[in-house]
Amino acid sequence: MMDPRLTLARPDLADVALQGIVAAERYEAPKRRQVATPTAALRKAPAADAEQWNQLLFGERFAVLDVKDGFAWGQAARDGYVGWVAEADLAPVGEPATHQVAVLRTYAFGAPDIKSRPQGLYSLNALVTIEAREGRFAKAAGAGWFVEAHLAPIGLAAAVDPAEVALGFLGAPYQWGGRESLGLDCSGLVQQALAASGQAVPRDTDMQFSFFEAIEEADRRRGDLVFWKGHVAILLDRDTIVHANAHHMAVAIEPLAEAIARIDAAGVGRPTGWRRARTSPPSVA
Q1: Number of CB atoms found within 10 A of residue 29's CB
Q2: How far apart (Å, rounded) are the C-alpha atoms in residues 132 and 73?
Q3: Domains plus CATH for the chain?
Q4: What pLDDT was estimated at residue 246?
Q5: Are 213 and 275 in contact (CB under 8 A)?
Q6: What is the pTM (predicted TM-score) of this model?
Q7: Per residue in 183-194, pLDDT tens?
C-alpha cells in the first residue's frame, strides 16, 4: 500500500504519473510552483487553522494538482510530502537554485547594504538563485540581497557534522511540523541537520527509522540517531542527546539516560532502535 503522506492521489484526483498504479476518477499533470515566502506551512486541509504537518522553505518546489479556497493541494519536491499550501506563498518556477542558506538564519535586504530594509528572514537550507553580485552581497531572485558568506553553492555543503548543526538550533521553540530556524519538531531537526550536511532524508520519524542504517546500541557514537515511538534524537556523544521535544518545548540537550527514563515513565516506552546516518563523523566519544 502506498503511503498517503507521499502519494499525490485522492479518490477524485491523482497525478497522471500514478495512472495505472492508484485508482482515481481522473488524472492530471501537476503545475510546477515554488515557495516565494521565507516559509510556507504544508497543511492537512485547505484552511489557515488546519494542522501543519510539514513546512516548506523558500525556493523549494511544489507540484500543484488542485486549488480550493485559496490553498493549493500538491506535493513537495524536497521530501515528497503531500498537503495544502496557501496560494499566496507560491510563485511560478524560476531558474534552478544555485545556492542554499548555510547559516542558521539570515536576512535578505532590499539593497546591497546592511542599513537597507530587511525583506525577510531566511532559514538554513532555504534555496536561492543568485542573479547579481555587488561587493560582499549576492542578489537572489524573488528574495533580495544576502551577505554571500551566508550562502553555499548547491551540492557543496559546508557542514560535515550533523550534531554540530543541530546544536545551532539549541533553544529554538518546538513547533509541530516545523523545519525553520524559529521553530521545528524532532524529525524536522534531523532532516535539517542532515540536509546541511549534504544528505536528503525523509520527513517523519517512522520514515527516517526505515531509511537509516540500523546499528547496535553498544556501537552508538556522535551523530547517530536514537528512536522512540514517534520521536527521534541526535547523539552528541554516547551519553548525551540533542532533540526538539515537547517536554522542554524547545531544542534541548539532555543526558541520554535521563531522557530514556523520562520518556519511558510518560508511557511511550524505551527506545525502538538506533540508526546511523551516512555522514556521521568518526567517533569523538
Answers
A1: 10
A2: 33
A3: 4-92 (2.30.30.40), 99-153 (2.30.30), 162-276 (3.90.1720.10)
A4: 97
A5: yes
A6: 0.94
A7: 999 999 999 999
